[in-house]
Design goal:
Largest sheet: 4 strands, antiparallel
Mean pLDDT: 80
CATH architecture of the largest domain: Sandwich
Distance between the termini: 109 Å
CATH class of the largest domain: Mainly Beta
Radius of gyration: 31 Å
Number of strands: 8
Strand order of the largest sheet: 1-2-3-6
CATH topology of the largest domain: Immunoglobulin-like
Structural class: alpha+beta
Helix content: 25-40%
Strand content: 25-35%
Number of helices: 3
Shape: elongated
Length: 170
Amino acid sequence: GNATSATTPEPAEPSVASVVDITSARRTRRQVVLAAVAAVAAALIGVVVVQTVRVDDGVQIADVVEADDAVSVELTGELQGLRVVRSPERGAIALLGDGVTPPRDDQVYELWLIEDEPARVETFRPDADGRVEVLVADMDPGENAVFAITAEPLGGSSSPTGPVLAMTTA
């Protein structure tokens, strides 16, 4: 009788252990699935929030260009094909260009608002077709604002380092 009672617990232990293993494996799998679902939900919420913010705040280039109070001013100089469109109503400006020659590979163009001191507005590069579409929201420079463009090192500069390539006239 002793031999049977000694061997009976042995198979019971592994089967208890394997039940625990299955349960913990299920728990782990459930946690992984829940974590994945939570990550997807967070990503979707993030996308929705970003889109909502963009829509709320989101003046688009077309809004500026098509605004009733839109004023378009050509930039003249060595760099051709650029204009600034501003809309006080939209509180934004758009820099638009066609057939714009790209800067050197180690440079970007930088748009400046010229007041007492040149104020950095935005850096940009034309696309492969020479098109430029830059929107600067939360900006109403006033009707006599003067804009200038320089070529600057990649990343732009805090004040102009290159010669003025194009500029609006007040």
